[in-house]
Design a protein that fits this description.
elongated, 23 helices, single chain, 9-stranded mixed β-sheet
Length: 495
């Protein structure tokens, strides 16, 4: 092609780089190399990182081999330099995670957040003062904690007034404390809500005005200059609260205190209630592996609340980061995931892929999930939004029936026949008369590809008796596996 040809084509001003780009575009952009899988489900069916962004669920009974199988996935994620938040369930989890990190070459990135350890996390201050954080996002975190607290308590109620009222009480306190001091922690919230004016007489009491933490924060906030939000919070404390009535105010305060005290007793106080922070979700975004070693089955409610605070704060940090600056994948890994499940999970999972967030949830059965979440619809929505599902050996009928329906149906051929019975006709046979014949027939029926009972009888659970092999049915919405179906049966060697 001559220079005049280039001028006529309008390409002379592109330069060498522009011409190369144009030629490449005309030839078609070369396909990127195939993404190495995180896990081979079968020799022909990989699980990739991009599929992992859509959420991964492992469900199976105790001893079904789900945790030992998913150790392969955990190692693969670590080898990809993924930042991770790992929520533990059993006392042995931390040592097992460290072993996997060591084999993946990531031991130096592990941070054990545990009683007696060096790390602290003031989750409220982090949410208030991080880039993109706000009073609104910190208040929503408190509302989620209140809701979780009330569902976890023995006094469950379908009445939305009480969790909403408790969350509002905390939001008003947070607004005033932050405006007065520039920060906030759980202990300050506790001191504030427990020193609310009991009634209108308290407002003119010198003792309340001079000694209560609530009064001192109000005065300090006023001296910093009022804003509309702070003014509304002040009106709530000084006018609305004293008018609520003793029983109503007492119930709201009891629910509020019940949430806050989870962070102010035992090891929780030093870990998240001290007001200090030297480990935050920002470290996870930078590639650290934070293991919250307050196993829910050991530390009970305080351990669960610490883990939930970490989970909520990490989700917010991931959702508001600039992917152009930090595109690192982040994984939230939860064994016994029903212990940390909350209504916000379904909404978060809906946008997880676009934010490079991987949710890995390991649990046992559907009734257990429903009991933990306190609501069947929320539990099923949580379940549905995790696109890739590994179903290990399970004996729960409801769980098995659900997954049998998920794996679908197909036409299956059945043959039928009959043989006539009755007295023998020897004379007729001797004279050559035709013998009556039986009949045969075929029919097609739509039946489940995997019957509910197969989840309990057809899947190996590992151990020496099974050659350390574990089986699982794997279902992935919107995908056809190598067998032409939306599910495939995979076999895995225990780690």
């Amino acid at each position: 092609m001559t220079e005049s040809d280039l001028i006529q084509a309008g390409l002379i001003g592109l330069g060498a780089g522009g011409l190369v780009a144009l030629v490449n575009a005309m030839r078609g952009k070369p396909k990127p190399p195939p993404e190495p899988p995180l896990l081979w489900i079968t020799p022909n069916d990989p699980l990739t990182l991009h599929q992992a962004y859509e959420g991964i669920l492992a469900m199976g009974g105790t001893g079904s081999g789900k945790s030992s199988t998913f150790a392969h996935l955990l190692r693969a994620l670590m080898e990809r330099d993924v930042g991770m938040l790992i929520l533990t369930a059993k006392a042995s989890d931390a040592s097992e995670i460290l072993a996997v990190a060591r084999s993946a070459g990531r031991e130096g990135d592990v941070r054990l957040f545990e009683p007696g350890g060096p790390f602290r996390f003031n989750f409220l201050d982090f949410e208030l003062n991080s880039r993109g954080g706000s009073i609104a996002s910190a208040s929503q975190m408190l509302a989620d904690l209140v809701d979780f607290s009330m569902k976890a308590s023995s006094q469950k109620s379908n009445e939305p007034f009480w969790p909403m009222a408790s969350a509002r009480s905390l939001r008003m306190a947070l607004q005033i404390i932050h405006h007065a001091t520039g920060t906030c922690d759980v202990e300050s919230l506790y001191r504030f809500v427990t020193s609310f004016p009991a009634n209108r007489d308290s407002l003119i009491s010198p003792e309340w005005r001079d000694r209560s933490f609530c009064s001192r924060m109000l005065l300090h906030a006023e001296s910093m200059g009022e804003t509309p939000d702070v003014s509304m919070a002040g009106d709530y404390v000084l006018q609305e609260w004293p008018s609520l009535g003793e029983r109503t105010a007492g119930s709201i305060q009891a629910n509020t205190i019940n949430t806050l005290e989870k962070f102010l007793t035992g090891p929780a106080r030093e870990l998240v209630g001290s007001g200090e922070s030297n480990l935050t979700p920002d470290d996870i975004l930078d590639g650290r592996i934070v293991v919250v070693n307050t196993p829910a089955l050991v530390f009970r409610e305080p351990g669960r609340f610490i883990q939930l605070a970490w989970k909520l704060a990490t989700v917010q940090a991931v959702l508001r980061r600039d992917l152009a600056v930090n595109p690192r994948p982040v994984c939230i890994w939860a064994d016994e995931a029903q212990l940390h499940a909350c209504p916000a999970d379904s909404m978060v999972q809906a946008v997880a892929r676009s934010h490079r967030l991987i949710n890995v949830a390991i649990t046992q059965n559907i009734p257990l999930l429903q009991a933990a979440m306190g609501d069947k619809e929320q539990a099923m929505a949580w379940l549905a939004n995790l696109v890739t599902k590994f179903i290990f050996s399970n004996t729960d009928r409801e769980t098995n029936e659900y997954f049998s329906s998920q794996l679908g149906q197909s036409k299956q051929l059945f043959m039928s026949g009959n043989q006539p019975t009755g007295p023998a006709d020897l004379l007729g046979e001797w004279m050559g008369q035709e013998e009556k014949q039986g009949s045969a027939g075929f029919s097609e029926q739509m039946l489940a590809d995997v019957l509910p009972e197969h989840f309990g009888s057809k899947l190996r659970k590992g151990g020496a008796e099974n050659g350390l092999m574990v089986d699982a049915y794997v279902f992935q919405g919107g995908r056809r596996f190598s067998n032409g179906k939306a599910w495939v049966k995979g076999s895995f060697r225990q780690a």
